[in-house]
Here is the input.
Amino acid sequence: MSKKNPDLRGSMVALVTPFRNGKVDRKAMKGLIDFQIKSGTDVLVPCGTTGESATLSHEEHRDTLSFVVDYVDGRVPVIAGCGSNNTAEALGLVRHARKIGASAALIVTPYYNRPTQEGLYRHYEFLASRVDIPIVLYNVPGRTGVSIAPETVARLSKIDTIVAIKEASGSMDQADKIMQLCDIAVISGEDSLTYPLIAIGAQGVISVTANVVPGLVHDMVWAALDGKMTQAAELHRRHYPFSKVAFIETNPIPVKTALGWMGKLKPELRLPLCEMRPENEKKLLEVLKQLGIPGK
Here is the structure.
């Protein structure tokens, strides 16, 4: 466990943003939040990649963060998605997260402009030095085109407010090296690797699949964290097929399709994302039925 912030552990959901007729659907968002908390989810993470933050306007982004923090009302911690490839824009989001009382800020590596390791260090150091809020680094090179090196994470871990990293590189070696180099908490950002990452020292997951199967993800994560590895392995095997089919098309298309099938939201996406291909939707529904998840 990181000695800096022991609260960011367990099953954390990368919350989808429900839309209806082009606007954020607050009624559906309330239902999703209550579903997560009732199912044992430890932390909510709105407005990340899964929350389609790239297509939220600046006003929608801030309003959604405020709404989630207000509605959660302290029942569980909220890590606010605050990433941008524009450092000044990210600073505005981080300041907003601090103002509304979010527990921490999740900050993805800047995308598209592909900064160097020194640029990555300066980006995070700039933000951490200007806002007093715990910061969770977010490494997802498949989305951003750049990977933060373990050595850079180790440099950043010396900053008191940088408390964790969501590691979604898909590399066990990367995660293991971070753990060797510093005491920062490593959180799985790759649903299919959550169990093995916890086995080598990760503190939990920020999960896409928990949108749909929060109880299963919670039980798997806490079995592993509590050292019940046989039980955790069994739950991992049950969870694994969904952890693969949930990414058969670009996230969050499959999970929103699943939540629509369950009646939790209208499965509306924003362009350039669009509905699933029928053959992939069929594969998704087959896995959901195997898990015993009822449709509406």
Observations:
- Strands lie at 10-14, 19-20, 23-24, 43-45, 79-81, 104-108, 135-139, 162-167, 185-188, 204-207.
- Residues 10-290 form a domain with the TIM Barrel fold (CATH 3.20.20.70).
- The chain is about 45% helix and 15% strand.
